[in-house]
């Protein structure tokens, strides 16, 4: 039975991109050559360290190999291409620890955790968003995100399609929010002040330049100091992100109230 099971897994791996097969443990590490000097996790960790420090453009097979004291050719025995390496880097940083339990009835809190956990990856690893989305998630850690989000929807009387659409909506918001937080961090690290980033430092000038004739709708908001948030703190975009997330959750809740004809999952 075991042999048959292995054959089935072999068939599965043949139908997956090589990098994806590696994430599922369906590809054996090379046995020839010096043993235990390198491993796939070791290579991926080295690549992540370079990307965290110097950006995604600094990651190359030769740079990663050099940081480990090996040649690029030795890396190719473990990871056949840079595309595979990038996929494995994404998978590694997506290994997020979710809370073991969230109240069964508190689906909104479940979704908040899903969004903020996703957003945090972009902030902790600024290069994460620089890798283009190439398709639906099919690696273990990315599917853990989907599975965990679905766990908060067990009482939803909607189809699986609708649940996946909700996850896509929240994922897109988390991605945009994460990129915003990342860009703010980069701006501050380069010397931009919070007041410059928020345009607070230019509030007086804007009140002179934004006239009611040219900007009739924006004018009262600028004059009230609400455009630059003269009475707010600007060390984080968290308040704006939280506001947007809550309105999205309001919309989902309203949608659910209008679609209560089905039965929740067991």
UniProtKB/TrEMBL annotation:
Residues 37-97 form the HTH tetR-type domain. The keyword DNA-binding applies. Residues 60-79 bind DNA. InterPro entries: Homeodomain-like_sf (IPR009057), HTH-type_TetR-like_transc_reg (IPR050109), HTH_TetR (IPR001647), Repressor_TetR_C (IPR004111), Tet_transcr_reg_TetR-rel_C_sf (IPR036271). Gene3D superfamilies: Homeodomain-like (1.10.10.60), Tetracycline Repressor, domain 2 (1.10.357.10). Keywords: DNA-binding, Transcription, Transcription regulation. It comes from the Bacteria. It comes from Paenibacillus haidiansis. The keyword Transcription applies. Transmembrane segments: none annotated. This is TetR/AcrR family transcriptional regulator. Pfam families: TetR_C_1, TetR_N. The lineage of its organism: Bacteria, Bacillati, Bacillota, Bacilli, Bacillales.
């Amino acid at each position: 039975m075991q042999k048959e099971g292995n054959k089935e897994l072999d068939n599965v791996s043949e139908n997956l991109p090589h990098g994806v097969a590696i994430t599922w443990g369906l590809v054996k590490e090379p046995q020839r050559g010096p043993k235990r000097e390198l491993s796939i996790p070791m290579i991926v960790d080295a690549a992540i360290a370079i990307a965290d420090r110097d950006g995604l453009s600094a990651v190359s097979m030769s740079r990663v190999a050099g940081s480990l004291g090996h040649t690029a050719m030795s890396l190719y025995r473990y990871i056949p291409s840079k595309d595979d390496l990038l996929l494995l880097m994404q998978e590694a940083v997506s290994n997020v620890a979710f809370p073991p339990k969230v109240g069964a009835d508190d689906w909104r809190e479940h979704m908040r955790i899903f969004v903020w956990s996703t957003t945090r990856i972009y902030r902790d690893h600024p290069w994460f968003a620089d890798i283009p989305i190439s398709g639906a998630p099919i690696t273990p850690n990315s599917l853990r995100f989907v599975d965990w989000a679905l766990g908060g929807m067990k009482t939803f009387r909607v189809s699986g399609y609708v649940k996946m659409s909700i996850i896509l909506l929240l994922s897109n918001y988390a991605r945009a929010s994460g990129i915003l937080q990342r860009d703010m961090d980069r701006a501050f690290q380069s010397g931009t002040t919070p007041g410059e980033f928020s345009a607070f430092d230019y509030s007086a000038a804007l009140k002179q330049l934004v006239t009611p004739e040219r900007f009739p709708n924006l004018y009262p908001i600028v004059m009230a100091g609400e455009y630059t948030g003269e009475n707010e703190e600007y060390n984080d975009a968290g308040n704006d992100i939280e506001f947007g997330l809550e309105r999205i959750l309001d919309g989902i809740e309203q949608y659910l109230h209008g679609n209560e004809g089905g039965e929740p999952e067991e």
